[in-house]
Amino acid sequence: MNDLLAGVIVAHTDVAEALLAAVRAIAGEDHGLVAVSNRGTDRTSLTRALEAATGGRAAVVFTDMAGGSCAHTAVAMARGRGDLKVVTGVNLAMLVDFAFHRGLPLEVAARRAVEIGRTAIGIVER
Amino acid sequence: MSLVLCRIDDRLIHGQVVVGWGQRLGLGFIVVVDDAVKDNVWEQELYRMGVPAAMDVVFATVAEAAGRLAEWERDPRPGIVLTGDVDTMVALCAAAGAAAPRRVNVGGVHARDGRTERLRYVFLTAEEAAKLQALAAQGVVVTAQDLPTTKPVPIAELV
């Protein structure tokens, strides 16, 4: 089981923890995700928190907003590394799906998360 | 005045700057004053992520910024100057002479060894606090304020 991917949600204030609580409610406890808040952090301290959250495993890092401090930090941390992929625009649909597809290769898992997340966004017509 | 904000923020360009201040002030350009980032094209691309295409981003060293502050003041678009720490803002003010900013906003200086909490988003060492006080003693209005919708806190209340 050690070759399963880790998932790290990093977002502003309480967003990551709230998303993780929702994943737990839907998918149960075997989700492989860790929540990290950017509250009170600069890039150095947030990088440390993200490193700790991956637990040394290959990981998809889900960030809330492209251009925000969470995404900046994750992208800077992942630069030149083959064991991290950064996904922006995290949503619940991609996280729930990720929980059940952590055995995929890292690149495939990250691309899948983006596709699932995009598919979940739309206007519902009656 | 075209430069509507001179801000110390260790996250430099991020959501609060682009959205919180940017939308409210109708920012046309952002100047990042940071000698290291000025020399790092990859970091510059990173900071451009999420900045609207209509908003220009300029990267400058302290020396370059000191020489261009008057030019940016004449720009008809509202602009913001960012430094990542107290030292850089103090250096910019010193180097700019008569063109130095008259107001400095402490927008985000986060926890680090040796710093103590002054506000939820402002942590300062005794040395940093003294430098900001010295800036205020020179006539610069120094306040802490993370977003335009919050109340500015005078530096005297932080030290």
Give me some keywords for this one.
heterodimer, A: 126 residues, alpha/beta, Rossmann fold, 5 helices, B: alpha/beta, seven-stranded mixed beta sheet, two-stranded antiparallel sheet, 6 helices, globular
CATH fold description of chain B: Fructose Permease
Ranges of chain A with pLDDT <50 over ≥5 residues?
A: none
List the uncertain runs of chain B.
none
CATH superfamily name of chain B? Phosphotransferase system, sorbose subfamily IIB component
> Hey, roughly how much beta strand do the residues of chain A contain?
15-25%
From the spread of the alpha carbons, the general shape of chain B counts as globular
Instruction: Give me the CATH superfamily of chain A.
Output: Phosphotransferase system, mannose-type IIA component
Major β-sheet annotation of chain A? 4 strands, parallel
End-to-end separation of chain A: 44 Å
Number of domains of chain B: 1
Order of helix and strand elements from N to C terminus of chain A: EHEHEHEHH
CATH hierarchy: architecture of chain B: 3-Layer(aba) Sandwich
Query: Between the first and last Cα atoms of chain B, what is the distance in angstroms?
Result: 29 Å
Highest CATH level, the class of chain B: Alpha Beta
Strand content of chain B: 25-35%
How does the overall form of chain A come out from the CA principal axes?
globular
